[in-house]
Amino acid sequence: MPIHLSNEDARRIFLARQGLSAPPGRALSKTALLELIHEIGFVQVDSIATVERAHHHILFARAQGYRHEQLTRLLEKDRALFEHWTHDAAIIPSAFFRYWKHRFARARSSLAERWRSWHENGFEAYVDHVHERITREGPLMARHFEAEKRPPGGWWNWHPEKTALEYLWRTGALSIAGREGFQKVYDLTERVIPAADREGEVPEDVFIDWACTSALERLGFATHGEIAAFWDLVSPEEARAWVAANAERLEPVIIGCEDGRTRASHALAGSRAVFDALPAAPSRLRVLSPFDPLLRDRARAQRLFGFDYRIEVFVPAEKRVYGYYVFPILEGDRMVGRIDMKAERKAGVLEVRRLWLEPGVRGSAGRLAALDAELTRLARFTGVEGVRYLEGWRGA
To answer: pLDDT value at position 156?
Structure first.
């Protein structure tokens, strides 16, 4: 018999699996931070610092005793984490590096042809030159390879050496040794990733099994497409084949969606008792990063929370519904709104421009006080002194 989960239970399970059910005000040691990142799988990296960079904000939302330097230490000193690609750039436990070797192998064929077309004359020579120079000189940044006549435009007009750096990183020859001003510092992988993590090898079938099993553990329940999308390591077809081949290790789940419909999913066998033991999310109101993994899969967020959310950074200004960089608001197990705000560092304030509450959510005095308390905590974390509400921030 399939497991039937109400929408409330499905939200509870997913929040717990994504690290959002522990007390948010707790202290967080460096060891506990590493355990948290293992638990949720990865933390997305993004350069936008409208309030706080995504990786720091994601961790702060889960444990507000988190401090920036803890992540830097784990990444750049302890080497317990490494930076690479999931669906986007992300910070990942180094214990998983051996599985990323399969991603590197797949990237060698897919990227070489695409990027060679940008730099038709001597792409391999650029790759060899960049690799040789880092081998000889040590960690380098893209600016150390700047061409005298850099082509105008965005990432698609990278100079050849920058393309070579990214190719070598995405295919595993180089790793990110650190960042300066958010610019990547590249070094040889053997000088960055600990030998115990770097030297492990797994066959293809073990890699696919790990990618699917570990994704399902962190999602709680999922379709084959959601399993594939979690790490973005395997294709939907590979995830579908894995589901079919592992029927005895799985059990069917029927998920109650927010709109009253249901959706068939899969869970690991024995999940019923595990699901029952997972705690409810704390009732406290929290502001999430736009890149929070809870909302990365927009369709899943819509089904579970009835929350239609997308990041409008790349949407032309005249077509934006809300704004350039608008933050989701979580209260307990519900998405209750979104807020447009910016850390104005020269003025020393977190400036609130506009609040939108979801349909049916009241702007009660208690809820607004909880929001103000959360914004005050976030302001302190991001290094400004207080919160300033602009005229009209409540809307009409």
So the answer is: 47
